[in-house]
């Protein structure tokens, strides 16, 4: 199954310019099998996600993108934000308590600079510094294909994933309708629920896919 694990809608994410219905419709037109709604520090109620699934005929699952001291983290298996989740150790404890999964989102941010990164020695230094970050050891997977990331940034994330010996995921990080379909995660097994998603992420039975299908081009650009 091909699922976009990283999307944002308005008004739950105030930097997004696409509604939930527009987003889900774009995902369906792109040929995706499902999407996860991962708003900034906010969770969709399961009932609302199920209603979007019923209305559009494509799997919609709730998650969140939490802003932490170690960067942004995609969370699957929790249902509400708690004060303290900005601390990675606290977020990890909450995930363990509820059987949830944590994915490092666009981990190249704050760790990789494109211009000096063109120099092999400078890039190697940035990678080793990132691998020494104990915070990254708290996560279950690494987003290696971000639809809004440059190729050099996503390649850095892939090298980081390999160094951490973690599975990789992909997501469009959609904020506009036309961004849908630029990256996703290909799962080996069928996923029909949030529990299925969490189980497959923990098992690592997936891989990141870059530009799996032509993106939906209608809607606002930017």
Indicate the percent of residues in helices. 25-40%
Looking at this structure, what is the CATH superfamily?
A: Metal-dependent hydrolases
CATH fold group: TIM Barrel
Quote the average pLDDT: 94
Instruction: Tell me the radius of gyration.
Output: 16 Å
Strand order of the largest sheet: 7-6-5-4-3-2-1-8-9
Q: CATH class, please? A: Alpha Beta
Poorly predicted ranges (pLDDT <50, ≥5 residues)?
214-222
Give the helix tally: 7
When the domains are counted, the total is: 1
CATH architecture: Alpha-Beta Barrel
For the largest beta-sheet, the strand count, sense and barrel status come to: 9 strands, mixed
Shape designation? globular
Spatial separation of the terminal alpha carbons = 29 Å
Instruction: Count the E strands.
Output: 9
SSE order: EHEHEEHEHHEHEEHE
Q: How much of the polypeptide forms β-strand, as a percent range?
A: 15-25%
Structural class: alpha/beta
Supply the key terms:
222 residues; alpha/beta; TIM Barrel; nine-stranded mixed beta sheet; 7 helices; globular; disordered C terminus
Characterise this structure.
- It is a single chain.
- The chain contains 7 helices and 9 strands, in the order βαβαββαβααβαββαβ.
- It is α/β, with parallel strands linked by helices and 222 residues long.
- The chain has a single domain, classed as TIM Barrel (Alpha-Beta Barrel), CATH 3.20.20.140.
- The protein has a 9-stranded mixed sheet.
- A hairpin with a 2-residue loop joins β3 and β4.
